[in-house]
Design goal:
Its cofactor is Mg(2+). Keywords: Hydrolase, Magnesium, Multifunctional enzyme, Nucleotidyltransferase, Repeat, Transferase. This protein is of the alpha+beta class. It has 42 helices and 16 strands. The protein has an eight-stranded antiparallel β-sheet, with helices on both faces. It has a four-stranded mixed β-sheet with strand order 3-2-1-4, with helices on both faces. The longest helix has 33 residues.
């Protein structure tokens, strides 16, 4: 619907507004400041009413473009009435100026929070009163709260500046008269067209596309970020505007529909342009209305409300917000398609006009076709692959796949004209093409290419080919997952996973994952691995578990791709179990033998273990920036090596007592420079669990730490160590033991802003605790991280010694962080006795918040449970904490009633409903017992000696 087809009368009573403004001047002569102050409430009320009606109509008809046009019209009326009032009562010479809208406002569209971009055109012979009229109008607009971008120039100045400044040229391109002298605006349009636009099309196009590329690079160069920038991001409104600027500048058109008559766009493509524009404007307007400001990032905390405002409903496997965001990303993809089509048309038109262009332009746009060895269907045009003739795809649809294969082999870029024809030929990819052996052979060759398979997959996906060729993949194109963990849509995640695999395959990034790089050259089933990596999340968004559903898809798809039955079953297994290694490494105690035996039973062979390790690394690395770190790599390597020992028959069958004896002797040997008395005293401090699970290197460090503390007479001490490769910082605490010690330490870490990743908890025979807390690294530079770790260590010491009160420091930290109301994670508690031979494993899952770990460990202490080890894992807004516990007598928790009580208490604290923890304080605040720094814990002594 065009602007002139909208009934604007219901938005604003223009006649009444004029009368109210005129009444300000009736019978009185007010100073300028008082006049502005009197006009202000009248205009503000009219603006608010008009915008509210525009919002109501948006909620009613859902048209973003109409909403933007309505707001623009309201703004026009305010400016017109204000200008007329100024000219009639303050500065009569103001009538001779022209007030014009430029930029987005010049198109007759305006978002609720947008800047008001104005151009005040003055005649060549202008006066101070004309400038004062402009100044008065601007001050009123500023007083109303508008952010106004403005320029006051003559026509001559506009023409001169637009020749050298591309931003000014673009703004004037969309100049639209609002009020005042129409003659000045007409003069500007005529001279601009004749003196600036003429013969400068290629220059303008190159500048705008370069500007677009730079903007994309700044925004992350992907349209599949799960919190996209609706205005500036790839596939957003600015990209559509760039297309319109180029079309308007080069083809001299004013509406996109005119491009259909010129043969640049098909009718369907023109409709796609209008739909994309309308949808993106609807999203942007809703964002501005909802936040009350010019918010351009579609963040998690507003996505759900906007989805509801736009009328999206949940469907099996996808929530309403996920359906809305999938629509958003599909629109963003359509914008990319339109960009390619328009660029192809421009290049073809400019090539035809080459004889009239300069030598530089001739060099750029004249076709220079060369044969490509091995094919007659495609040719090279200045480093880009294109079609030998327009009917190639129509005669042989398999050539759509072959096109990308040849591009992969030759390293040629893709010609926009070929991509345009491909986009228009997608319907040719039917079951015949999908089942074609040659098409599948070519695809598998590209997928497992040693060059850049992710680049080809991304290009196929951008062109819409990948989703047509593999319909199951097509279902996850543009699909987002509404959580803070996944940074990209599912299809982008899968392609980035392949990219990570190719990097490993090419021997790169060995410093990031050395074991995978070492294993990869010996992997015989490369194609199996590439297929599994591409398809591991292909069943996301279904009611069935995506691992199981994905395995079913793989069982059908792999034979089509040319894999034999053995390879197919291996892909099926990898997809079905693609999460097991990651979850085992991050949520289980890897020093517990049962963890390793259970995992080995699932894996069963070294070939599977190698492939699963590499798949797991690729999956984690493709989740988003900062998700992969060295600590996760170390956990995976530990699990790999321990499992390798068991699968290869090297796992020790020697009894725990014998292994502990060997470890004790090794420690004594390592402390050979100590006196015999010191050595004997220290050897008696540790129980079996410590000797069997802590490395000799760390045992020696701990020994020196304890000796130094004893010599200094310190009952309480901390030691810090940082590791940049593992992206982890270690804080070791020596303190008198107490049942609530871990809870207090966790609370101190939360108060200091530290995220705990792991905890090793040991008790010495003299009743002291030797606890090691591993926190996620925050700073790149070791010196900075050591200072941070020292601060955290001092916080722990201050809380344990009573210098600081934990309730106060946690409350201060909690106030500085907003409670997450965007996401909901139902509290879950799993209590299992089958995951460890010695301990009950308690796994809790819920919404993360400040002080949660302190609360959970406090509840476990209240329930008389001793924690042997804890694994803390955060997936965005969700936390999964695993605790290996025993009761006061050193036994597992087997009583069902007691298990039920534990579960209920933990769910209550995760839901933030625990009864103020008996201290009268809000949940999230743990008060340390005065005994925390005095008396040892009989329970922990019992546990350690068990």
């Amino acid at each position: 619907m065009a602007r002139h087809d909208i009934d604007f009368s219901e938005l604003l009573d223009v006649a009444r507004l004029k009368e109210e403004c005129e009444a300000v001047f009736t019978g009185r002569d007010c100073p300028l400041l008082e006049t502005r102050a009197t006009l202000l409430p009248i205009l503000k009320r009219a603006s608010a009413e008009g915008r509210q009606k525009a919002r109501d109509l948006l909620n009613k008809d859902g048209s973003g473009l109409n909403c933007a046009r309505r707001i623009s019209w309201v703004q026009d009326q305010l400016i017109c009435i204000l200008h007329q009032t100024i000219a009639a009562h303050l500065y009569a010479e103001g009538e001779a100026i022209a007030v014009a809208a430029v930029g987005g406002y010049g198109r007759g569209t305006l978002a609720p929070g947008s800047d008001i971009d104005l151009l005040f055109l003055l005649p060549e012979k202008n006066t101070d009163n004309m400038r004062k009229a402009v100044e008065f109008l601007l001050y009123v607009l500023w007083d109303m709260g508008f952010k106004v971008g403005h320029a006051t120039r003559t026509v001559e100045e506009c023409i001169r500046l637009s020749k050298t400044d591309m931003t000014i040229r673009t703004a004037i391109l969309e100049c639209r008269s609002i009020c005042g002298s129409q003659m000045l605006v007409s003069e500007l349009e005529t001279r601009f067209d004749q003196e600036v636009v003429a013969d400068t099309g290629p220059e303008f196009i190159a500048a705008k596309l370069a500007e677009r590329d730079q903007r994309h690079q700044k925004a992350g160069d992907t349209r599949y970020l799960v919190e996209p920038n609706v205005k500036e991001g790839k596939g957003g409104l600015r990209d559509l505007h760039t297309l319109f600027w180029i079309a308007k500048y080069y083809y001299r058109v004013r509406e996109t529909t005119e491009l259909v008559k010129l043969g640049v766009l098909s009718r369907e493509e023109a409709r796609s342009f209008e739909k994309a524009d309308d949808f993106l404007w609807a999203v942007r307007c809703q964002m501005h209305f909802l936040t009350g400001k010019a918010e351009e990032r579609l963040s998690f905390d507003i996505q759900r409300e906007i989805a509801e405002s736009l009328g999206y409903n949940a469907r099996p496997g996808l929530s309403a917000v996920e359906r809305f965001m999938k629509h958003y990303f599909l629109v963003a993809k359509n914008v990319g398609d339109l960009t390619r089509i328009l660029c192809a048309a421009l290049e073809e038109k400019q090539a035809k006009e080459a004889p009239g262009l300069t030598r530089r332009v001739i060099s750029r746009f004249t076709k220079r076709l060369h044969k490509i060895p091995g094919t007659v269907k495609f040719v090279e045009d200045r480093g880009r692959i294109t079609l030998a003739d327009p009917e190639v795809f129509k005669r042989d649809p398999v050539s759509i796949i072959r096109f990308f294969h040849v591009a992969d082999i030759t390293g040629l870029e893709l010609h926009p004209d070929a991509l345009k024809r491909m986009t228009r030929s997608l319907s040719l990819i039917d079951n015949g093409v999908r089942e074609n052996a040659e098409a599948n052979r070519l695809f598998l060759s590209m997928l497992s290419s040693r060059r850049d398979p992710a680049l080809m997959l991304r290009r196929m996906n951008e062109a819409g080919v990948l989703g047509r060729f593999i319909p199951e993949f097509g279902k996850v194109v543009a699909m987002m997952q509404f959580n803070m963990y996944h940074h990209y849509t599912v299809d982008e995640h899968l392609i980035r996973s392949v990219d990570a695999l190719a990097e490993i395959d090419q021997g790169k990034a060995g410093d990031i994952h050395p074991l995978a790089n070492k294993i990869m050259p010996g992997v015989e089933e490369r194609e199996v691995l590439y297929v599994a990596v591409l398809l591991h999340d292909v069943a996301k968004g279904r009611e069935e578990d995506h691992s199981l559903a994905g395995a079913k898809i793989a069982r059908k798809l792999c034979p089509r791709l040319g894999l034999n039955p053995k390879q197919t079953e291996l892909v099926v297994w990898l997809i079905e179990e693609h999460l097991i290694m990651s979850m085992t490494a991050q949520t289980r105690d890897l020093h517990d033998r049962k963890t390793i035996t259970d995992f080995a039973e699932k894996v069963q062979s070294m070939d599977r273990l190698k492939l699963l390790l590499i798949l797991t690394i690729c999956d984690i690395r493709a989740v988003g920036p900062g998700v992969w770190n060295g600590w996760k790599g170390q956990l995976l390597r530990t699990l790999y090596y321990e499992t390798e020992l068991l699968l290869s028959g090297g796992f020790s069958e020697v009894s725990r007592q014998e292994r502990a004896q060997v470890a004790e002797e090794a420690l004594a040997k390592a402390l050979s420079d100590w006196t015999p008395k010191e050595r004997r005293t220290y050897q008696k401090l540790h129980y079996q669990p410590y000797l069997l699970s802590v490395s000799l290197e760390d045992q020696v460090r701990h020994a020196q730490f304890i000796r130094d503390a004893d010599r200094a007479g310190q009952a309480l001490a901390t030691m810090v160590r940082t590791d940049s490769f593992h992206a982890i910082t270690e804080i070791t605490i020596l303190a008198p033991d107490h049942p609530r010690l871990l809870s207090i330490i966790a609370g101190a870490c939360a108060a200091a802003g530290a995220n705990i990743a792991d905890a090793q908890i040991f008790t010495t025979s003299d009743g002291r605790a030797l606890d090691t807390i591993l926190i996620n690294r925050e700073f790149q530079v070791d010196e900075d991280e050591m200072r941070r770790a020292g601060t955290i260590g001092r916080m722990i010491e201050d809380v344990l010694s009573g210098k600081k009160r934990l309730p106060e420091v946690i409350a201060t930290r909690a106030k500085s962080r907003k409670r997450n109301k965007t996401f909901t994670v139902p509290p879950s508690v799993i209590i299992a006795n089958s995951l460890s031979n010695k301990f009950t494993v308690i796994e809790v899952e819920g919404l993360d918040r400040t002080g949660l770990l302190a609360d959970i460990t406090a509840v476990l202490a209240d329930l008389s449970l001793d924690i042997h080890s804890a694994r803390i894992t955060t997936f965005g807004e969700k936390v999964i904490d695993t605790f290996y516990v025993i009761d006061l007598f050193g036994h597992k928790v087997t009583n069902e009633n007691r298990q039920g009580n534990i579960s209920a208490r933990l769910k209550a604290v995760m839901a933030d409903q625990e009864d103020e923890l008996r201290t009268g304080m809000p949940s999230g605040i743990i008060a340390p017992s005065p005994a925390a720094t005095v008396s040892p814990s009989p329970s922990r002594r019992a546990k350690a000696g068990a």
